[in-house]
Amino acid sequence: MTERIELDPSDGPWLHTLVKRVHAARNNGNGEEAARLLAYGRAEGGEALARLADQLLAALAERDTASLNGEAMAPYGVSAAPDDSLVCDFCAASGPNVYYEVNEFGISGLGGSFLSGDRFYACPRCRELVDASDWKGLRDWIGPSSQAMGHRMLIVGFKKHRKGAPVEFEPGTNPEANRRP
């Protein structure tokens, strides 16, 4: 069992704080502290957030290397989804079975910028809540991360830019597979 540390997933910038602390520990040569923080993140945040933390740490390492070479870092994409799979854009659960088309929108904040894309994927439970316009129920289902400002802005953006009814697809298939930009 990993000991509890001073990071709480109900705190809005939890993932950002975790990544900053792991990065600082690594830069200070404290691999033991970095490993302890990562173990805590995996235990508290689950595999989807652990994948995001790993990717963000890789992006920071790439940024640091580019900076040392006097170069700018190339854009770096991150995703909570395992390779070649989809996750619910609301709760990060695997196995979405619908998507909602949206007009793309952007969100910017301390952690960077985010462009929504033109689809939001939903698992069966999130679909039920979205279709009922039960936004409080959706936040309750998502849990503490729904209180983070970025997540709240994402839900507001979705509500404002949604184009219509959900589009169903077969479980285990990937509607993104044959899309063209």
Give a description of the structure.
- With 181 residues, the protein is mostly helical.
- Helix content is 45%, strand content 10%.
- It contains five helices and five strands; from the N terminus they run ααββββαααβ.
- It has helices spanning 14-27, 31-68, 124-131, 135-142, 149-161; strands at 98-101, 106-109, 112-115, 119-122, 167-168.
- The strands form two sheets. The chain has a three-stranded antiparallel β-sheet with strand order 4-1-5. Strands 2-3 form a two-stranded antiparallel ribbon.
- A hairpin with a 2-residue loop joins strand 2 and strand 3 (112-115).
- Helix 1 packs across helix 2.
- The longest helix has 38 residues, at 31-68.
- The protein starts with 13 loop residues before the first helix and ends in a 13-residue tail after the last strand.
